[in-house]
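Technical annex, item 7. During the second reporting period the consortium partners agreed on a shared format for inverse folding records so that results from different sites could be compared directly. Each record opens with the tokenized structure and is followed by the designed sequence. A conforming record, contributed by the partner at site C, is shown below for reference.
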């Protein structure tokens, strides 16, 4: 499908793309780079790329597909570095979790002869780094493409074919709408998880060892999300401020309503909400976006 794929950043997502591209034979050559010499050495050792370069500018030379797989906070600097090196007809895309900021950061550096088609595979785990990736990460998951107005439709179609070949389902969306949808489905849930784990860690009347010991009551499911990469998530919140603050405002109002329902013994209000939310979980399972196995498929010992 492509002669030369350049991966800028090879963590969980970049290494998963490398594995999947190899598995499905989608590029003749993979060239990769990362910020640190340590990661570049790991990439070479794992054979994730045919060539590893020291700089992003070297990596993109002659590439017909370039995928930025670094935290979104460095995209503007990366755009300035690689923009002048992009080959005629090259497609520049990314996997960043926010999209309006990415369009704003990359567009000014794009030469007329290249195409910018930002993307976001809605797939991931709490792991990070080049050893965390696996080829199946994108299978049956959605990938959202957010081409800015005026983007060459052929470039968008080619990228859609690429993600479908990796096993994803593809949806095209306006960048601002993507940011609003993901604020409520991903960004705010992560903030809630970071917050509740932080609150538990700060409690003085309850000891740390009790929090850990009795975590199966629900807390540990938040800790999985709260173990996500700190750099990546700092950049997500700083680059999707408006949508996250909008959704947090609504969340706080609804939380206040729940507080009031508890205070005034309004069991009906609590029961009605909890029934609606149970239905959402059913819909997610029915849509194939999670396993129907109880407790996320954890196996339980006899005394659990
Ligand atoms: P990660 O595992 O932490 O990997 C990030 C990679 O980017 C590392 O290889 C890092 O190199 C490299 N990097 C950082 N700054 C760089 C720079 N200036 N130039 C070149 N490479 C640089 O992160 P990830 O989870 O794969 O996430 C990568 C992107 O995917 C982020 O934009 C994130 O928003 C998006 N995303 C993540 C998920 C998820 O669940 N994790 C899901 C969907 C989308 P070093 O190791 O040398 O620092």
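Designed sequence (site C submission):
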């Amino acid at each position: 499908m492509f002669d030369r794929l350049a991966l800028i950043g090879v963590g969980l997502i970049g290494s998963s793309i490398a594995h999947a591209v190899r598995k499905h034979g989608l590029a003749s050559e993979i060239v990769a780079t990362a910020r640190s010499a340590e990661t570049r050495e790991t990439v070479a050792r794992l054979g994730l790329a045919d060539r590893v370069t020291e700089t992003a500018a070297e990596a993109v030379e002659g590439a017909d597909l370039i995928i930025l797989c670094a935290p979104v906070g460095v995209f503007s600097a990366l755009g300035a570095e690689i923009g002048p090196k992009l080959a005629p007809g090259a497609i520049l895309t990314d996997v960043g979790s926010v999209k309006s900021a990415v369009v704003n950061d990359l567009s000014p550096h794009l030469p007329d002869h290249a195409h910018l088609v930002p993307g976001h595979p809605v797939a991931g785990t709490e792991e990070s780094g080049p050893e965390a990736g696996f080829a199946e990460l994108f299978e049956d998951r959605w990938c959202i493409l957010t081409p800015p107005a005026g983007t060459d439709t052929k470039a968008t179609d080619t990228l859609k074919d690429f993600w479908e070949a990796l096993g994803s389902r593809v949806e095209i969306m306006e960048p601002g709408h993507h940011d609003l949808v993901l604020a409520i489905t991903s960004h705010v849930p992560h903030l809630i998880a970071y917050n509740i784990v932080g609150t538990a860690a700060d409690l003085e009347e309850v000891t740390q060892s009790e929090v850990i010991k009795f975590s199966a009551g629900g807390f540990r499911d938040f800790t999985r999300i709260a173990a996500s990469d700190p750099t990546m998530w700092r950049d997500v919140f700083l680059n999707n401020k408006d949508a996250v603050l909008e959704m947090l405002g609504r969340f706080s109002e609804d939380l206040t309503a729940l507080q009031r329902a508890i205070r005034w013994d309004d069991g009906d209000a609590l029961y009605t909400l909890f029934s609606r939310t149970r239905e959402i979980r059913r819909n997610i399972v029915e849509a194939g976006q999670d396993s129907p196995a109880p407790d996320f498929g954890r196996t339980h010992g006899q005394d659990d």
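The chain has two domains: 2-173, 177-264. The CA atoms of residues 163 and 170 lie 7 Å apart. All partners now use this format for quarterly exchanges.
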